[in-house]
Amino acid sequence: MIAVSASGLTRTFQGGGQALERFTFEVPRGEVHGLLGPNGAGKTTLCRILSTVLLPTGGSASVLGRDVVRDAAHVRRSVGVVFGGDRGVYGRLTARQNLNFWAALHGLSGRALRERVAVLLERTGLTGRADERVDHFSRGMKQRLHLARGLVADPPVLILDEPTAGMDPIAAHEFRDLVAQLRDDGRTVLLTTHDTAEAEAVCDRVTLMRRGAVLATGSPSSVAGLVTSQDRISASGVPAAVVAELVARPEVVVLDGSGGDRVELETSGDTTGEVLHLLVDAGVTRLVRGRPSLEEAYLRLLRRQGMAVDR
Amino acid sequence: MRVLLASLRLQLQLALRSAEVLQACLMAPLLAVVFLSVASLGGDAGLVAFAPSAIVAPALMALWTSALFTAGQSITEDRALGVFESVVASPAPLPVVLLGRMCAVTAVGLIAFASSWLTSGLVFGHWVVVEHPLVLPVALVATGLATATTAGLLAPLFLLTPSARTVQNTLTYPFYLLGGVLVPVTDLPEWLRPLGRAVFLSWSADLLRDTLLPAPPADPWARLGVVLALGGVASLIGTTLLLRVLHVVRSSGSLSHT
């Protein structure tokens, strides 16, 4: 079943700015889907439309089969939204008071509300600070409170707009674990991020966006495969004669062979095995074989289209 | 109802951590000192005659000021905090959330009335007797609710115009005059009286003053009904306007603008 879909979705702002242009995609239920793209690519606009706070100027979008314009009330009941940054909570209140308010807005009350808030505080590691003013929280703690707020209604679909922006590496790592838990719960997660490593780590599929349109979509490895189908071999401590031999082979693409005893190559098929044999036989022990990363694909695809930064 | 109560609780929690309550608590007794000082120029007789007005006027002024402040700031601050989009994205109806927050100003009215009354007794030694203790609290609550819905009428304006302060400032003294807060509507020029009677405050002010006078107030429940009816009309108009303006800002993409 499709959890989130958009068909020809278009959003034009006053003054002619085009944030989304006939954007079409589908996210199956239970998938963690990443939206990647430079600033101005339309990621946040898409999140706002899906969370019903912005109306599209063309096309359509739906969440769990409900149209985000015609059936906004239903969509709001099934979507949890976390807009990025450290804003979005009442700093003068405590974490528990914030969550109590949001839980009530989502229809919880009494014991069910108290239990839900306690569970979320525990899950996001805020139980010990639950009765402190949010003003005194670090950015990472505020982000965790945002996430708790997004989960307060136990929604089947969660929209996270740059949830790790500004988080320290440890908090970001913990966040990835949390997203993995959400997937295990069977939730659908739509995640916008600039961090390709994060997308590669937590997303089942990603969509690369550029100027409001889809540039590529698929699993992180398949998107990475769009820029090259070849294997990548990096090695150091390579004897000069072996470097020369590799450089001379026409079926080997040398990405970097000017660093003395270090080489970086692209090969494919049987040649990969031959090159690896050659390096091992020459006594090279420091070598890595892999595929291009999502980050490399992201950068290459954007560069093919021109400048990497939009509007 | 739970959304209304949660919003009311939120506003009270926020107000307790801001200068809002302090301002209301200080404004009413300070104004009472001014009015009672003027009254005392006429000797004891002047003080006795004018004290009910000198207690009611500061309470209503503090209530209305606080209501205007809350109507403007609740949206403006929510936008600045990045909270407003999440409120709109929740299943709770925005008019109910705002009404709940506005209803919190009723508490300010009660505090302001009590502090004005205490000022008369403690500072001027004149303890005004609440002659009709059954009507007074009901009238105060009804006035608080009508104030909440009437000031809430302005919320759509604050959505369209983020700079709410100018609007707030221009809607204080005209309302005090038309609402019979400073002087009863019957003392206004004849051509202004019908306009004054369309403002719920004029009914509230008269009734509250009457609760401090020995004579039984005439038709108190009917007058309370008028206060609530005018508040209800304001609520209906405010809700309709708010939903319309919400659609406009969702269309224009200016929902989160500050």
UniProtKB/TrEMBL annotation, chain A:
Where the protein is mainly located, per its record? membrane
**One Pfam match, by short name?**
ABC_tran
Biological process (GO) annotations held by this record are:
response to antibiotic
SUPFAM superfamilies reported in the protein's UniProt record: P-loop containing nucleoside triphosphate hydrolases
The record's subcellular location field reads: Cell membrane
Q: Which InterPro entries match?
A: AAA+_ATPase, ABC_transporter-like_ATP-bd, ABC_transporter_ATP-binding, P-loop_NTPase
Q: Name one GO cellular component term.
A: plasma membrane
Query: PROSITE patterns from the xrefs?
Result: ABC_TRANSPORTER_2
Q: Does the keyword Cell cycle apply?
A: no
Asked if the Swiss-Prot or TrEMBL record annotates the protein with the keyword Nucleotide-binding, the reply is yes
Provide the family line. Belongs to the ABC transporter superfamily.
Q: Name it.
A: ABC-2 type transport system ATP-binding protein
TrEMBL record, chain B:
Q: Any idea which UniProt keywords this protein has?
A: Membrane, Transmembrane, Transmembrane helix
- Would you tell me the Gene Ontology cellular component terms? membrane
Under the GO molecular function aspect, what terms does this record hold?
Answer: ABC-type transporter activity
The ABC-2 type transporter transmembrane domain, residue ranges = 19-212
Transmembrane helix as a keyword of this entry, yes or no, is yes
Task: Quote the Pfam families the UniProt record gives.
Answer: ABC2_membrane
* Cell compartment(s), UniProt: Membrane
Q: What is its main location?
A: membrane
PANTHER family xref list: ABC-TYPE MULTIDRUG TRANSPORT SYSTEM, PERMEASE COMPONENT, NODULATION PROTEIN J
- The name under which this protein is listed is ABC-2 type transport system permease protein
Q: Which organism is it from?
A: Umezawaea tangerina
